[in-house]
Amino acid sequence: MRPDRSRRPLQVALSREQITSAALTIADTEGVATVTMRRIAQELGCGTMSLYRHVRTKDEVLDLIVDAALGEEERPDTPSGDWRADLYRLARAKRTVLLRHPWLSHVVAGRPVLGPNAIASTEYALSALAGLGLSMDETVRIINTLHAFVNGFVQTEIEESKWRRHPESEASEAREDDWREATLPYLQHVIESGRYPHFTRMVYEAESSPDTDASFEWQLERVIDGLSPAVPS
C-alpha cells in the first residue's frame, strides 16, 4: 500500500524574509514564547525541516525578528547636530517600536542585538554624541542610560496595561475600580494610623491615572537634563 501523501504539508517557496515576517506576526499576536520552528512552519504551510534551509536555529529567528522590529524606528539617517534633540527623537522612536511589539523590550534587554538595523540605530546615537569631547566609554554610558530608561518605562507601561485588562474582557476601568474597592479598607487603615503622612498626601493629591505620554516626556526630559553635565560645554 502506498503511503498517504495527502496530509503532507505543501511544498512552498520560502525565504528568510517570509520566515521573519511569519515569526514576527506570531510574536506580536501570540507572544514570543510561542515562536517555534513548528509554529512558523504551520503559519507558512510548509514542513518544519524546510525552514532549516534558511535559518539554523530558533535563536537565529529571534535575532531576525528583533532586527526587523528595530528597523521600524522612524528617525533621520543622520543626526541634526543638536545632541539633545537627537536623543529625544531616538527615545521617542524606540518607545513607539517597543509598544508596537510588546515582547521586544524584554528580549533586547536580555540578549546581544547586532543586526543591521540595530547597528544603524547605534550608529545614529554614537554620531549624535560625536565631536562633543566625550570618551567612547562616556558616550556608551549615555546611550545605555537612555536605552535603560526607555526599556524600563515601556515594560512598566505594558505590564500595567496587561493588569488592567479584565479577564472577561470588560472595560479596563472595571478592573481598576474593583481593585480600588477591594483595597480601600486597607488604605483607610493605613491612613488613619497617622504613621505615613507623605504616603497619605500622595493618596489624596497625586493623579491616580496619569497620562503615560505626558509622563514619558516629563521623565525623558529629566533623564536628558541629568545627562547634560556629562557633556562638555
Structure description:
The chain contains 11 helices and no strands. The protein is mainly α. The model has no long low-confidence stretch (mean pLDDT 88). The protein folds into 2 domains: 16-70, Arc Repressor Mutant, subunit A (Orthogonal Bundle), CATH 1.10.10; 83-164 and 196-230, Tetracycline Repressor, domain 2. α5 packs parallel to α8. Pfam families: TetR_C_1 (PF02909), TetR_N (PF00440).
Treating each run of at least 4 consecutive H or I residues as one helix, how many helices? 11
Per CATH, what is the topology of the largest domain?
Answer: Tetracycline Repressor, domain 2
How many domains make up the coordinates?
Answer: 2
Mean pLDDT: 88
Under the CATH scheme, the architecture of the largest domain is Orthogonal Bundle
CATH H-level homologous superfamily name of the largest domain = Tetracycline Repressor, domain 2
* Overall body shape: flat
- Report the C-alpha radius of gyration, rounded: 23 Å
Number of strands: 0
Q: Would you list the SSEs in sequence order as H and E?
A: HHHHHHHHHHH
CATH class of the largest domain: Mainly Alpha
Portion in helices: 55-70%
Largest sheet composition: none
Proportion of β residues? under 5%
Low-confidence stretches: none
**Structural class by sheet pairing and helices:** mainly alpha
- Span of the ends, CA to CA: 83 Å
Organism: Halostreptopolyspora alba
Protein name: TetR/AcrR family transcriptional regulator
GO molecular function: DNA-binding transcription factor activity; transcription cis-regulatory region binding
InterPro entries: Homeodomain-like_sf (IPR009057), HTH-type_TetR-like_transc_reg (IPR050109), HTH_TetR (IPR001647), Repressor_TetR_C (IPR004111), Tet_transcr_reg_TetR-rel_C_sf (IPR036271)
